[in-house]
């Protein structure tokens, strides 16, 4: 069963819900006691501002949770993924994987080669995106989630 606890919505907040996550360390630990896995959506990117002086990356650092990076499988993906994974490491957080999202079959050179290049340049598991009619998580996704237990 999927349960949703929201800290911020699309980078816009009155501050109350973000402050709840940032200032109350028990919020995440209490949530982890009630559900098997806590997944926090980054709402558009690692450096998206939640407020003018506070970014998704700052919230992730305050929560001290592992990070799963999602990138579109297209031209620019290599740069985006590498910069984000390096920035996650700079925040001393663990990047547990990289998901390559694609809305259609890749037919250009970038889309066809991004996965292979990312495997060579980044030391994080590469995961395929999940489809809409999924009935069971793929093995590599289950392993990735298991690696976050106790975090």
What does this molecule look like?
The protein has 151 residues and is of the alpha/beta class. It folds into two domains: 1-65, no CATH class; 66-151. The chain has helices at residues 16-23, 26-34, 56-63, 77-90, 109-121, 139-146; strands at residues 49-51, 54-55, 67-72, 95-101, 126-128. A three-stranded parallel sheet has the order 3-4-5, sandwiched between helices. It has a two-stranded antiparallel sheet with strand order 1-2. The longest helix has 14 residues, at 77-90. Residues 1-15 have low confidence and may be disordered.
Describe this structure in a few short sentences:
By secondary structure, this protein is an alpha/beta fold. Helices cover 40% and strands 14% of the residues.
Write out key terms for the chains shown.
151 residues, alpha/beta, 2 domains, 14% strand, disordered N terminus
- Average predicted local confidence, pLDDT: 80
Counted up, domains total 2
Uncertain residue segments = 1-15
Based on DSSP secondary structure assignment, what is the total number of beta strands? 5
Helix fraction?
Answer: 25-40%
Layout of secondary structure:
Elements: H1 16-23, H2 26-34, E1 49-51, E2 54-55, H3 56-63, E3 67-72, H4 77-90, E4 95-101, H5 109-121, E5 126-128, H6 139-146
Helix pairs in contact: 4-5
